[in-house]
């Protein structure tokens, strides 16, 4: 591979990094609360919006995605997880709002991923790609798939851990209640038996 091919490969990689962007985070959504996040998107850019309720309540949340002109692009009521891909119709700040206003006592942990730009390829080539360039593109796609799988499994692990902790708390409370009940019944039985014997002595 000559010098110019290597330069073209690095320019393609750098261009892909510049063309793609977004927000990926997990946040806590209190009960009776609403939180909004903003992402600047250029016109005709492709965007992918994903979310998942990791913990809390019935694992559901209200979601609204709005364009800069207040047009509702996407809306879901009491949904646990979903994804929505769209092409921006105008340049500006797109707003994604999560609402837990229907819940009065359970706060939730929500994961959100807002990707902007084409992340599927390393850029278009006018000439035929060399073997090294095609290998780099394959590695790029595989790494993106690995990141998606890791994120998915981390969320599943967090859900499982939270459910296990909740189950442990419930089992502990149930055990304490059973212990108290057994003690109360034991004391009651002893008291009743004592009253029987004291009445006979009289």
TrEMBL record:
SMART domains: EMP24_GP25L (SM01190). SUPFAM superfamilies: Supernatant protein factor (SPF), C-terminal domain. InterPro entries: Emp24-like, GOLD_dom, GOLD_dom_sf. Residues 34-116 form the GOLD domain. It is found in: Endomembrane system; Membrane. Residues 1-22 form the signal peptide. The chain crosses the membrane at residues 171-193. GO terms for cellular component: endomembrane system; membrane. It comes from the Eukaryota. Keywords: Developmental protein, Membrane, Signal, Transmembrane, Transmembrane helix. This is Transmembrane emp24 domain-containing protein 7. The lineage of its organism: Eukaryota, Metazoa, Ecdysozoa, Arthropoda, Hexapoda.
């Amino acid at each position: 591979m000559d010098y110019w091919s290597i330069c073209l490969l690095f320019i393609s990689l750098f261009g892909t990094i510049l063309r793609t962007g977004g927000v990926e985070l997990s946040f806590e959504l209190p009960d009776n609360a609403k939180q909004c996040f903003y992402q600047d998107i250029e016109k005709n850019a492709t965007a992918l919006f994903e979310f998942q309720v990791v913990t809390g309540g019935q694992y559901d949340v209200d979601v609204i995605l709005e364009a800069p002109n207040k047009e509702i692009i996407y809306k879901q009521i009491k949904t646990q997880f979903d994804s929505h891909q769209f092409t921006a119709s105008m340049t500006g700040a797109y707003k994604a709002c999560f609402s837990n206003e229907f819940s009065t006592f359970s706060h939730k942990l929500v994961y959100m991923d807002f990707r902007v730009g084409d992340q599927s390829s390393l850029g278009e080539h006018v000439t035929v790609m060399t073997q090294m360039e095609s290998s780099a593109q394959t590695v790029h796609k595989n790494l993106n798939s690995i990141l998606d799988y890791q994120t998915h499994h981390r969320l599943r692990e967090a859900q499982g851990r939270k459910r296990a902790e909740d189950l442990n708390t419930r089992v502990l409370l149930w055990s304490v209640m059973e212990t108290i009940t057994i003690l109360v019944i034991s004391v009651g039985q002893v008291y009743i038996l004592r009253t029987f014997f004291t009445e006979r002595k009289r």
